[in-house]
Design goal:
single chain, 411 residues, alpha/beta, Carbamate kinase, VC0802-like, 2 domains, 12 helices, globular, binds adenosine-5'-diphosphate, binds aspartic acid, binds magnesium ion, kinase, transferase, aspartate kinase activity
Length: 411
């Protein structure tokens, strides 16, 4: 007998019939003698619908009220699942994030979990209850309702698995596992049996929406094996673990992509030694996430600096830069929206110097201009125009032969 955390995403709970189906998947584990903690998302597209309701009223609704609003979505699902399980003759109880003891920092719309007091869940489990917890939400130390960022229910599940010392954490979704690329847009994408935490973390950060990046971070830090699998089909999913065995000769494991990227460029930047720290300190203090940064100081008095942000942060970034313009010292700022980032990921890249060159050849081969590049030991990313994003992803997937089981060499 063990303790299992199961998480079901929005599509898996989109209707009452699917909620009943989820109930059956939960009971499969319970009937084996396991204790079950179940984390659910809001039904179907509820979160998007709530966002658009708010946008009907305001272009910039306050983040506090948005969290208050969005947290209601998951609350609907927990109670419905609990009702379904009770109807099937089982003891079940639903808990909001705050009732479940999920503490977060006070950052609306993208809060990090700081602590979990799992005592209430534990005592309900001891009473043989199936415990159902609302994903994506928590409470700050001063009692404010917070949310964990879009897709954050995964993180609730893995964090609870860590706090409870669960034996397993299963993420049920609308695909049968983690694929070499998003199967919705890359036609030859292939399901992986296994992938390492490190590669999954990189893919998730680079836009593979199948898992919330912080969920993978928790899983890696607490060594919790994850399985991503389908809530509708029976086949085994993808295991995410410390050292996934490399498939033969595999250099690139997956292709990820992300749109809504903006490039900001500051021209005529003073080359005094503290300039960069001032720019990025002021952005960080305003919770603006910066991704790729490019600056070449060639020893002249002035230089330019480019960095990427998410489209939705453009206004905020411009006003922060304006506010600090005298302190930072630059001539003008330009932004280019409508860009996308396409990335290849694989632990095998470290020892294969030709991978980046091959990637650039493929992107140039579809006539896309590469605007920025960023590399690490296990990934290469290129910023290109958004219209070329899916062509680039499909071309890279084919060039690195990711659709084939025994994968590729570099040339
Ligand atoms: P859930 O609501 O269950 O959390 P999500 O929509 O957040 O589901 O995540 C599942 C989706 O992730 C899939 O439908 C798929 O389109 C997308 N996705 C993106 N990249 C990948 C990938 N590499 N492997 C599998 N799915 C991916
Ligand atoms: N309901 C939230 C969202 O749509 C959280 C989640 O599904 O993980 O982003
Ligand atoms: Mg998700």
């Amino acid at each position: 007998m063990g303790l299992i955390v199961q998480k079901f995403g929005g599509t898996s709970v989109a209707t009452t019939e699917r909620i009943r189906n989820v109930g059956h998947r939960v009971l499969e584990e319970v009937n084996k003698g396991h204790q079950a903690v179940v984390v659910v998302s809001a039904m179907g597209k509820t979160t998007d619908q709530l966002v658009s309701l708010a946008n009907d009223l305001s272009a910039y609704p306050s983040k506090r009220e948005m969290d208050m609003l969005l947290a209601t979505g998951e609350q609907v699902t927990i109670s419905l699942l609990s009702i379904a399980l009770q109807e099937m003759g089982h003891q079940a109880v639903s808990l909001t994030g705050w009732q479940a003891g999920i503490q977060t920092e006070k950052v609306f719309s993208n809060a990090r979990i700081t602590d979990i007091d799992a005592s209430k869940i534990q005592s309900l489990l001891n009473e043989n209850q199936i415990v159902i917890v609302a994903g994506f939400q928590g409470v700050s130390s001063d009692g404010e309702i917070t949310t964990l960022g879009r897709g954050g229910s995964d993180t609730t599940a893995v964090a609870l698995a860590a706090a409870l010392g669960a034996d397993r954490c299963d993420i049920y979704t609308d695909v049968t596992g983690v694929y070499t690329s998003d199967p919705r847009y890359v036609k030859d994408a292939r399901k992986l049996d296994r992938i390492s935490y490190e590669e999954m973390l990189e893919l998730a950060h680079l836009g593979a929406g199948v898992l919330h990046p912080r969920a993978v971070e928790f899983a890696k830090n607490y060594q919790i094996p994850l399985e991503v699998r389908s809530s509708m089909e029976r086949e085994r999913g993808t295991i995410i673990e410390e050292e996934a065995q490399m498939e033969n000769g595999l250099v690139v494991r997956g292709v990820a992509f992300e749109k809504n990227v903006t490039r900001m460029t500051l021209f005529g930047l003073d080359n005094s030694h503290a300039t960069l720290s001032k720019v990025f300190r002021s952005l960080a203090e305003n919770h603006i996430n910066v991704d790729i940064i490019i600056q070449a100081n060639t020893g002249e008095k002035k230089s330019s600096l480019s960095f990427t942000i998410h489209d939705e942060d453009v206004q905020n970034t411009l006003s922060v830069l304006e506010k600090y313009s005298n302190e930072i010292g630059f001539d003008k700022v330009e932004s280019e929206t409508g860009l996308a980032k396409v990335s290849i990921v694989g632990a095998g890249m470290i020892s294969n110097p030709g991978v980046a060159a091959r990637m650039f050849e493929v992107i140039e081969g579809i006539d896309a201009a590469i605007k920025m590049v960023s590399t690490s030991e296990i990934k290469v990313s290129a910023v290109i125009e958004q219209e070329k994003m899916l062509d680039a992803a499909n071309a890279l997937h084919a060039a690195f032969k990711l659709g084939e089981v025994a994968a590729t060499s570099v040339n």
